[in-house]
# Entry
Amino acid sequence: MVTVDRPPKGYNAILWFIFDGAFLGFTLARFEYLNIWKVFCNPNGQGGFTAAPGECYWYENFPRNKIGIILHPGTILPAPLLAAFQFVPLICYKAILYHRIAGYVIFLLVAVSDAGAIMVVNHAFGGDIVTQVFVGVLVIITTISLVLAYINIKRLQIDQHRAWMLRAWFYFASIISLRLIQVIATSVQSSWPESQQYGAFPCSEMLFTYKNNATNVYNDFPACNPTNAQWALDGYVVVKADLNGQSVMNAAAALGLTPRESERLRQVSYERQLERGFKDPGSAGLVVERFGDAYPWVPKSYLDAATTKFETRKSNSSSD
# Structure
Protein backbone atom coordinates (compact mmCIF):
# COMPACT_ATOMS: atom_id res chain seq x y z
CA MET A 1 0.00 0.00 0.00
CA VAL A 2 1.28 3.44 -0.94
CA THR A 3 1.63 5.89 1.92
CA VAL A 4 0.54 9.44 1.14
CA ASP A 5 1.75 12.24 3.38
CA ARG A 6 -1.02 14.17 5.06
CA PRO A 7 -0.91 17.96 4.77
CA PRO A 8 0.19 19.91 7.86
CA LYS A 9 -2.51 19.90 10.53
CA GLY A 10 -2.24 23.65 11.12
CA TYR A 11 -3.71 24.78 7.85
CA ASN A 12 -6.66 22.38 8.20
CA ALA A 13 -7.48 23.94 11.58
CA ILE A 14 -7.25 27.47 10.17
CA LEU A 15 -9.59 26.71 7.26
CA TRP A 16 -12.00 24.88 9.56
CA PHE A 17 -12.10 27.87 11.90
CA ILE A 18 -12.64 30.39 9.08
CA PHE A 19 -15.33 28.56 7.14
CA ASP A 20 -16.81 25.84 9.36
CA GLY A 21 -16.45 27.81 12.57
CA ALA A 22 -18.29 30.82 11.15
CA PHE A 23 -21.16 28.64 9.94
CA LEU A 24 -21.29 26.83 13.28
CA GLY A 25 -21.41 30.14 15.18
CA PHE A 26 -24.22 31.45 12.96
CA THR A 27 -26.19 28.24 13.50
CA LEU A 28 -25.82 28.33 17.28
CA ALA A 29 -26.93 31.96 17.33
CA ARG A 30 -30.11 30.98 15.44
CA PHE A 31 -31.05 28.08 17.71
CA GLU A 32 -33.35 30.36 19.66
CA TYR A 33 -35.58 30.41 16.56
CA LEU A 34 -36.71 26.92 17.51
CA ASN A 35 -39.00 28.77 19.92
CA ILE A 36 -41.01 30.01 16.96
CA TRP A 37 -43.95 31.71 18.63
CA LYS A 38 -42.09 33.46 21.46
CA VAL A 39 -38.88 34.40 19.64
CA PHE A 40 -39.10 34.21 15.85
CA CYS A 41 -42.69 35.51 15.74
CA ASN A 42 -42.32 37.85 18.71
CA PRO A 43 -44.05 41.11 17.66
CA ASN A 44 -41.84 43.05 20.08
CA GLY A 45 -38.59 41.60 18.73
CA GLN A 46 -35.95 43.77 17.09
CA GLY A 47 -36.08 44.08 13.31
CA GLY A 48 -33.65 41.82 11.49
CA PHE A 49 -33.69 39.28 14.31
CA THR A 50 -37.27 38.07 13.95
CA ALA A 51 -39.68 37.32 11.12
CA ALA A 52 -40.50 40.05 8.62
CA PRO A 53 -43.49 42.24 9.54
CA GLY A 54 -46.70 40.36 8.89
CA GLU A 55 -44.90 37.13 7.95
CA CYS A 56 -46.15 35.27 11.03
CA TYR A 57 -49.74 36.04 10.06
CA TRP A 58 -49.47 33.16 7.59
CA TYR A 59 -47.70 30.86 10.05
CA GLU A 60 -50.28 31.34 12.79
CA ASN A 61 -53.42 31.14 10.66
CA PHE A 62 -52.74 28.64 7.86
CA PRO A 63 -51.94 24.96 8.61
CA ARG A 64 -49.58 24.40 5.66
CA ASN A 65 -47.44 27.39 6.57
CA LYS A 66 -47.54 26.49 10.26
CA ILE A 67 -46.27 22.96 9.57
CA GLY A 68 -43.62 24.28 7.21
CA ILE A 69 -42.19 26.83 9.64
CA ILE A 70 -42.00 24.16 12.34
CA LEU A 71 -40.29 21.63 10.08
CA HIS A 72 -37.75 23.95 8.48
CA PRO A 73 -35.85 25.41 11.47
CA GLY A 74 -36.43 22.23 13.47
CA THR A 75 -34.38 20.24 10.96
CA ILE A 76 -32.03 22.69 9.22
CA LEU A 77 -30.52 23.98 12.47
CA PRO A 78 -29.39 20.58 13.84
CA ALA A 79 -27.98 19.56 10.43
CA PRO A 80 -25.05 22.05 10.38
CA LEU A 81 -24.10 21.05 13.93
CA LEU A 82 -23.54 17.50 12.71
CA ALA A 83 -22.04 18.60 9.39
CA ALA A 84 -19.48 20.90 11.00
CA PHE A 85 -17.75 17.98 12.69
CA GLN A 86 -17.97 15.79 9.60
CA PHE A 87 -15.05 17.79 8.21
CA VAL A 88 -12.82 17.22 11.25
CA PRO A 89 -10.05 14.84 10.02
CA LEU A 90 -9.96 12.85 13.28
CA ILE A 91 -13.64 11.93 12.90
CA CYS A 92 -13.24 11.09 9.21
CA TYR A 93 -10.27 8.76 9.85
CA LYS A 94 -10.97 7.29 13.28
CA ALA A 95 -14.74 7.39 13.76
CA ILE A 96 -15.85 6.04 10.41
CA LEU A 97 -19.07 4.46 11.72
CA TYR A 98 -20.13 7.70 13.40
CA HIS A 99 -19.19 9.64 10.25
CA ARG A 100 -21.39 7.35 8.16
CA ILE A 101 -24.40 7.40 10.52
CA ALA A 102 -24.19 11.18 10.97
CA GLY A 103 -24.09 11.54 7.19
CA TYR A 104 -27.35 9.63 6.75
CA VAL A 105 -28.98 11.66 9.55
CA ILE A 106 -27.86 14.89 7.85
CA PHE A 107 -29.34 13.73 4.54
CA LEU A 108 -32.68 13.07 6.25
CA LEU A 109 -32.67 16.41 8.11
CA VAL A 110 -31.89 18.33 4.94
CA ALA A 111 -34.65 16.56 3.00
CA VAL A 112 -37.26 17.41 5.63
CA SER A 113 -35.91 20.96 5.89
CA ASP A 114 -36.24 21.45 2.13
CA ALA A 115 -39.86 20.26 2.30
CA GLY A 116 -40.56 22.78 5.07
CA ALA A 117 -38.89 25.59 3.12
CA ILE A 118 -40.97 24.88 0.03
CA MET A 119 -44.15 24.94 2.15
CA VAL A 120 -43.49 28.50 3.40
CA VAL A 121 -41.56 30.02 0.50
CA ASN A 122 -44.54 31.93 -0.91
CA HIS A 123 -44.69 34.02 2.27
CA ALA A 124 -41.13 33.94 3.66
CA PHE A 125 -39.33 37.31 3.45
CA GLY A 126 -42.40 38.74 1.76
CA GLY A 127 -42.80 35.78 -0.58
CA ASP A 128 -42.00 37.68 -3.80
CA ILE A 129 -40.83 35.91 -6.94
CA VAL A 130 -37.16 36.67 -6.22
CA THR A 131 -37.36 34.91 -2.86
CA GLN A 132 -39.14 31.92 -4.38
CA VAL A 133 -36.54 31.60 -7.14
CA PHE A 134 -33.68 31.88 -4.64
CA VAL A 135 -35.10 29.18 -2.38
CA GLY A 136 -35.91 26.94 -5.35
CA VAL A 137 -32.40 27.24 -6.78
CA LEU A 138 -30.85 26.64 -3.34
CA VAL A 139 -32.93 23.48 -2.84
CA ILE A 140 -31.96 22.17 -6.28
CA ILE A 141 -28.21 22.83 -6.14
CA THR A 142 -27.81 21.54 -2.58
CA THR A 143 -29.82 18.40 -3.36
CA ILE A 144 -27.75 17.72 -6.50
CA SER A 145 -24.52 18.27 -4.56
CA LEU A 146 -25.55 15.88 -1.78
CA VAL A 147 -26.69 13.22 -4.25
CA LEU A 148 -23.38 13.46 -6.14
CA ALA A 149 -21.51 13.23 -2.85
CA TYR A 150 -23.49 10.09 -1.98
CA ILE A 151 -22.86 8.49 -5.38
CA ASN A 152 -19.14 9.17 -5.14
CA ILE A 153 -18.75 7.71 -1.66
CA LYS A 154 -20.59 4.59 -2.80
CA ARG A 155 -18.00 4.37 -5.58
CA LEU A 156 -15.27 4.94 -2.97
CA GLN A 157 -14.29 8.18 -4.76
CA ILE A 158 -13.46 9.89 -1.49
CA ASP A 159 -11.87 13.04 -2.95
CA GLN A 160 -15.00 13.83 -4.99
CA HIS A 161 -17.25 12.97 -2.03
CA ARG A 162 -15.40 15.60 0.00
CA ALA A 163 -15.52 18.13 -2.84
CA TRP A 164 -19.29 17.83 -3.33
CA MET A 165 -19.97 17.92 0.39
CA LEU A 166 -17.94 21.13 0.66
CA ARG A 167 -19.91 22.63 -2.23
CA ALA A 168 -23.25 21.65 -0.68
CA TRP A 169 -22.50 23.27 2.66
CA PHE A 170 -21.10 26.43 1.14
CA TYR A 171 -24.34 26.71 -0.81
CA PHE A 172 -26.25 26.33 2.45
CA ALA A 173 -24.03 29.01 4.01
CA SER A 174 -25.23 31.51 1.41
CA ILE A 175 -27.90 32.41 3.97
CA ILE A 176 -25.16 34.18 5.98
CA SER A 177 -24.24 36.37 3.01
CA LEU A 178 -27.94 36.93 2.33
CA ARG A 179 -28.51 38.18 5.88
CA LEU A 180 -25.68 40.71 5.55
CA ILE A 181 -26.97 41.91 2.18
CA GLN A 182 -30.49 42.10 3.58
CA VAL A 183 -29.44 44.40 6.44
CA ILE A 184 -27.53 46.70 4.07
CA ALA A 185 -30.30 46.74 1.46
CA THR A 186 -33.09 47.57 3.92
CA SER A 187 -31.02 50.35 5.47
CA VAL A 188 -30.35 51.87 2.04
CA GLN A 189 -33.99 51.64 1.01
CA SER A 190 -35.11 53.34 4.22
CA SER A 191 -32.70 56.27 3.92
CA TRP A 192 -32.36 56.79 0.16
CA PRO A 193 -35.61 57.97 -1.50
CA GLU A 194 -34.48 57.01 -5.00
CA SER A 195 -34.21 53.36 -3.99
CA GLN A 196 -37.61 52.96 -2.36
CA GLN A 197 -39.49 49.73 -3.03
CA TYR A 198 -43.16 48.90 -2.72
CA GLY A 199 -45.08 45.67 -2.31
CA ALA A 200 -48.69 44.48 -2.26
CA PHE A 201 -50.01 43.00 0.99
CA PRO A 202 -53.51 41.87 2.05
CA CYS A 203 -55.34 44.05 4.53
CA SER A 204 -55.71 41.06 6.85
CA GLU A 205 -51.91 40.84 7.10
CA MET A 206 -51.65 44.57 7.78
CA LEU A 207 -54.23 44.21 10.55
CA PHE A 208 -52.12 41.41 12.06
CA THR A 209 -48.98 43.56 11.79
CA TYR A 210 -50.75 46.43 13.58
CA LYS A 211 -51.75 44.04 16.39
CA ASN A 212 -55.42 44.15 15.33
CA ASN A 213 -55.62 47.92 15.78
CA ALA A 214 -58.08 48.63 12.97
CA THR A 215 -58.06 52.41 13.57
CA ASN A 216 -54.31 52.68 12.86
CA VAL A 217 -54.60 50.41 9.83
CA TYR A 218 -57.42 52.52 8.35
CA ASN A 219 -55.47 55.72 9.02
CA ASP A 220 -52.31 54.47 7.27
CA PHE A 221 -54.11 52.43 4.60
CA PRO A 222 -57.55 53.95 3.98
CA ALA A 223 -58.26 51.42 1.24
CA CYS A 224 -58.44 48.71 3.94
CA ASN A 225 -61.50 50.40 5.42
CA PRO A 226 -64.56 48.39 4.33
CA THR A 227 -66.18 51.62 3.14
CA ASN A 228 -63.28 52.04 0.66
CA ALA A 229 -63.12 48.38 -0.40
CA GLN A 230 -63.28 49.33 -4.08
CA TRP A 231 -59.78 50.79 -3.81
CA ALA A 232 -58.23 47.60 -2.41
CA LEU A 233 -58.02 45.19 -5.34
CA ASP A 234 -58.76 41.68 -4.02
CA GLY A 235 -58.20 43.06 -0.52
CA TYR A 236 -54.58 44.11 -1.20
CA VAL A 237 -52.95 47.49 -0.62
CA VAL A 238 -49.57 48.91 -1.66
CA VAL A 239 -47.03 49.11 1.19
CA LYS A 240 -43.77 51.06 1.18
CA ALA A 241 -40.68 49.11 2.23
CA ASP A 242 -39.27 50.92 5.26
CA LEU A 243 -36.91 49.61 7.91
CA ASN A 244 -38.43 52.03 10.44
CA GLY A 245 -42.10 50.95 10.24
CA GLN A 246 -21.54 34.57 -1.59
CA SER A 247 -20.88 31.06 -1.34
CA VAL A 248 -19.92 29.44 -4.62
CA MET A 249 -16.70 31.46 -4.54
CA ASN A 250 -16.00 30.31 -0.99
CA ALA A 251 -16.42 26.66 -1.99
CA ALA A 252 -14.01 27.10 -4.88
CA ALA A 253 -11.54 28.82 -2.58
CA ALA A 254 -11.73 26.04 0.01
CA LEU A 255 -11.11 23.39 -2.64
CA GLY A 256 -8.35 25.43 -4.26
CA LEU A 257 -6.56 25.93 -0.97
CA THR A 258 -6.45 22.20 -0.21
CA PRO A 259 -4.89 20.50 -3.27
CA ARG A 260 -2.69 18.19 -1.19
CA GLU A 261 -5.67 16.94 0.81
CA SER A 262 -7.61 16.36 -2.42
CA GLU A 263 -4.72 14.42 -3.94
CA ARG A 264 -4.26 12.38 -0.75
CA LEU A 265 -7.94 11.41 -0.76
CA ARG A 266 -7.71 10.57 -4.47
CA GLN A 267 -4.89 8.16 -3.64
CA VAL A 268 -6.94 6.63 -0.80
CA SER A 269 -9.84 6.25 -3.26
CA TYR A 270 -7.49 4.43 -5.66
CA GLU A 271 -6.37 1.97 -3.00
CA ARG A 272 -9.89 1.17 -1.79
CA GLN A 273 -11.32 0.88 -5.28
CA LEU A 274 -8.42 -1.38 -6.27
CA GLU A 275 -9.12 -3.64 -3.27
CA ARG A 276 -12.82 -3.84 -4.21
CA GLY A 277 -12.01 -4.68 -7.84
CA PHE A 278 -13.48 -1.52 -9.36
CA LYS A 279 -12.82 -0.84 -13.02
CA ASP A 280 -10.41 2.07 -13.54
CA PRO A 281 -9.45 2.45 -9.84
CA GLY A 282 -8.84 6.02 -8.75
CA SER A 283 -11.40 7.29 -11.24
CA ALA A 284 -14.39 5.01 -10.64
CA GLY A 285 -16.53 7.85 -9.28
CA LEU A 286 -17.86 11.01 -10.92
CA VAL A 287 -14.48 12.59 -11.65
CA VAL A 288 -13.85 15.32 -14.21
CA GLU A 289 -11.88 13.15 -16.65
CA ARG A 290 -14.96 10.96 -17.17
CA PHE A 291 -16.85 13.90 -18.69
CA GLY A 292 -14.30 16.45 -19.93
CA ASP A 293 -10.94 16.41 -21.68
CA ALA A 294 -8.78 16.37 -18.55
CA TYR A 295 -5.69 14.16 -18.53
CA PRO A 296 -6.19 10.76 -16.83
CA TRP A 297 -5.23 10.65 -13.19
CA VAL A 298 -2.10 8.58 -12.47
CA PRO A 299 -1.57 6.76 -9.13
CA LYS A 300 1.38 7.84 -7.02
CA SER A 301 2.89 4.34 -7.21
CA TYR A 302 3.11 4.67 -11.01
CA LEU A 303 4.66 8.09 -10.74
CA ASP A 304 7.20 6.86 -8.18
CA ALA A 305 8.09 3.88 -10.39
CA ALA A 306 8.46 6.11 -13.45
CA THR A 307 10.60 8.58 -11.51
CA THR A 308 12.85 5.80 -10.21
CA LYS A 309 13.23 4.36 -13.70
CA PHE A 310 14.08 7.79 -15.12
CA GLU A 311 16.64 8.45 -12.40
CA THR A 312 18.23 5.04 -13.01
CA ARG A 313 18.53 5.67 -16.73
CA LYS A 314 19.93 9.12 -16.08
CA SER A 315 22.48 7.71 -13.66
CA ASN A 316 23.53 4.98 -16.14
CA SER A 317 23.91 7.51 -18.92
CA SER A 318 26.13 9.67 -16.73
CA SER A 319 28.32 6.67 -15.87
CA ASP A 320 28.80 5.85 -19.56
Notes: The beta strands are 198-202, 236-240. The first strand starts at residue 198 and ends at 202.
